[in-house]
Amino acid sequence: MDYDFNFAAVWRDFDLLLSGLGLGLFLAVVSIAIGCLIGLLAAFGMLSRHSPVRWVSTAYVSAIRNTPILVLILFTYFALPQFGLRLGKIESFIVTLAIYSGAYLTEVFRSGLVALPTGLREAGLTIGLTEFRTKILITIPVMFRNVLPALGNNFISLFKDTSLAAAIAVPELTFYARKINVETFRVIETWLVASLMYVLACSIIAALLRQVEARLAIPR
Amino acid sequence: MTAPVLEIRNLHKRFGQVEVLKGIDLTMQMGDVVSLIGSSGSGKTTLLRCVNLLEDYEEGMVAVAGEQIGYTERNGRRVRLREREIARQRAMTGMAFQHFNLFPHMSAIRNVMLGLVKTRKMAKDEAYATAESWLERVGMADRKDHYPGQLSGGQQQRVAIARAIAMNPQLMLFDEVTSALDPELVSEVLAVIKGLVADGMTMLLVTHEMQFAHDVSNKVVFMQDGRIGEEGPPDQLFYNPKSERLAAFLKSSKF
To answer: Coiled coil: which residue ranges (chain A) (predicted)?
Structure first.
């Protein structure tokens, strides 16, 4: 192949790509934070004594996990306004991604909770803690540390999913890459740079997460 | 006259269709040390767990220091107390478990401090000092910053006992606290309990250590099929069992 690489066009708009990357990270962080809350509630819901609560939690998880995320994104952004719920692009995307990650995190947290020895809860109760405080002080922190690797993997795949926000014109990395591509026709250079930026960002996140895991690990 | 530390009357407990406690009566005064012995499935651990309501009970009553645990009468009907009340009542007793159940994400001293700070509302530095002195008492002061995963079974159990007694309970419950330990670690835990007996602590123990039960108890209760099969002073039960069942049990326990 005889091709003259020319990255000048890409470099000219590199700050756009960078800001897009930053927005993607922001979207992933906010979404997983909300997703963790949803996932925690739904995980306890799945383990509830009350069958309607179990049923609702299970329905949520299977409905979301069995729908392609792109469809969810388009549904929230284009269909919900028809029902009178109008959200901005970014808000709409965050809502979608939080609900989406919440469904996957439900399974992560549920298995984490099931794996805990029952004696942990009982020990909390015997020193006079209520069920709620036992969860807050003991079972959730221990479970959280145990599932940290799975949580990290979820975060990285969630970060990559932010590229789908381009579909509703959220100005993140993929959106700008497409813009540069269209304006300059430097197809190879544009997507090469964009891909490398994703790879680099994910590697750095993974390394940071390993640090966090090591620091929070339960000493043995 | 003050109320007995523990009063159990006509206690019944069912797991579904199976009745595991079929009418238990037991009274303990301050300073009493009572051992529950019997084969597995006889209901001794369940009985212990009804005292702090880790198990609900269907009939009869359990009272600690004159206060009925877990339930009250309202308009002639038996109602379960509110969560907060039950939590307060649970802290009247302390419990040590077969599998220690230390909080794995906290150091030894933080394990002991948690209940002092959260339940007893102690200031942090006071809780630290109290926890430290109890760890000292069980011979674990030099390991106070170790995490449970870094301690042997016997050490974990001693920390777990410190965690329970630091709360200053009126009654200590011991649930087979040496059963999960390697044989050479059993004695260090039994020594701690003996020390507490010498201090006059009131305690109810489920144990398979017959010699130990004989040495520390002022009363031994032999559980049999959810009932009290035989009870009395240790010498009488161990050397002069009335029933065939108890004699056979003692023989199989190599006493």
So the answer is: none
